[in-house]
Amino acid sequence: MAASPAKKFIDAALRSTGPHALSYVHHEHKRIIRDHLLSLLTDFPSLSPSTDHFFHNDGTSLHLLNVSGSLPVPANPHPIHLTIWVHHYYPFSPPLVFLTTSPTHSILRGHPFVDTSGATISPYLQTWRYPQSNLSDFARNLIHIFAHHAPFSDSSFVSYHSRPSLPSKREAVDRLVGVLHCDLTSLRTQVESETEDLLSVQVTLEKRTQITSTMIKELEEERSSLKERAKQVLEQVDVLQNWLKVNACGLTSSFSQDVSEVFEAEDEKCRQILENVAADGAIEDVIEVLDKEAENGSLSCGAYIKKIRALAREQFFHRAMLVKLQNSSLYPP
Questions:
Q1: What are the backbone dihedrals phi and psi of residue 87, each rounded to the nearest 5 degrees, phi first?
Q2: How far apart are the C-alpha atoms of 318 and 287, rounded to whole Å?
Q3: Under the phi-then-psi rule, with left for phi > 0, alpha for psi from -120 to 50, and beta for the rest, what region is 297?
Q4: pLDDT 10s digit of each residue in the chain, 333 long?
Q5: How far is 85 from 52, CA to CA, in rounded Å?
Q6: Pick from 96, 88, 142: which is nearest to 119 by CA?
């Protein structure tokens, strides 16, 4: 008869619709939740059912069933007050358990099963498997755990650690799993931090790879252009050499001055064109020499690029001047 009010409350809550409807959807899951809750309340009359909104860490809110009250822990002068929330995906997801703290009962720092907020990370929850796992067995497991690991910083608490009796197999497994869980959590945090650092390095390397690929592509295009220009210059050199072979004797006998003085511009515009053409050709010769030094390894890549850019800039101005002179009305192309 004592469980009748709790049974009525749970049945009414699970049947509620509209704004008071719970977040459980599947009918079969509701039946399992009802049976497990009634079994828990029968085994532990100090607990009572309720409904409320549960807020997850991501901000989502769900209307869930919960039971709250105290668990009788041996050798503990004060009951363990807690709240057990029935998860939205129960029974396939374990319940969510929070101890009730107070100024006089705060969670021990470094506790293997409870964090400072009161959230419980019991090994039973870590290995939750339906249908083997249920709320009543979980509550009994909590009693055994808290009997060996005091959750509160209460000096009056006498833990089973002080007793000479040997722990049971289940209790020993709980202790071992708790220690391993704490070690695993610490290791996971360290691995996640190292992974984030490595991902940051990977992003930086990918950006540098893209920049390097772009520079290599530009240099290859520039090299191809320079080779083509060098080919044209060599052809012009061949033409000039042939011309000199034919006219060398006449030039030597007719002029005593330097050969470069033989070429004389007719006017100022021709003089400018001749000077720019000569400067352009001289720059091409220098670029050809730089190419050979870079290929032989006599010139570093950085120095090569720096000199080539400076020469290309100067050559651009000479060629722009030639285009301007050739497009003028006084000197049609």
A1: -60, 155
A2: 15
A3: left
A4: 345 788 999 999 999 888 889 999 899 999 999 999 999 999 999 999 999 999 988 888 999 999 999 988 876 666 788 999 999 999 999 999 999 877 777 777 767 788 888 888 888 888 899 999 999 999 998 888 888 777 777 544 444 444 445 556 656 666 676 667 567 777 888 898 899 999 999 999 999 999 999 999 999 999 999 999 999 998 998 888 888 888 766 655 555 555 555 556 667 888 888 888 888 899 999 898 888 888 888 878 888 888 888 888 888 988 888 888 888 745 454
A5: 9
A6: 96
Instruction: Give 228-248 as a 3 state SS string.
Output: HHHHHHHHHHHHHHHHHHHHH
Q: How many CB atoms lie within 10 A of CB 54?
A: 19
For residue 119, what are the β-bridge partners?
Answer: 98
Catalogue the long-range contacts made by 314-318 (C-beta closer than 8 Å, 24 or more residues apart): 314/279, 314/283, 315/279, 315/280, 315/283, 315/284, 318/276, 318/279, 318/280, 318/283
Cα dist. 300→134, 218, 224, 303, 310 in Å? 73, 17, 19, 5, 16
pTM of the model: 0.49
